[in-house]
Amino acid sequence: MQSYVNHENIRRYQKLVAISEGDPSRDEARHQTLLRLLAEERAKDVRPDDWPDT
Question: pTM (2 decimals)?
């Protein structure tokens, strides 16, 4: 179950980062927080190397 939650968090943070990158009036502190959270979730991701990226 934890890997599912981790995977969904990664997908959500990727979406939020993409939205933030396209916003000309973005809040830079929020953007940096999203990047940090995404990196933390990716570090927790323990999928085997042969699984496709999503």
Answer: 0.76
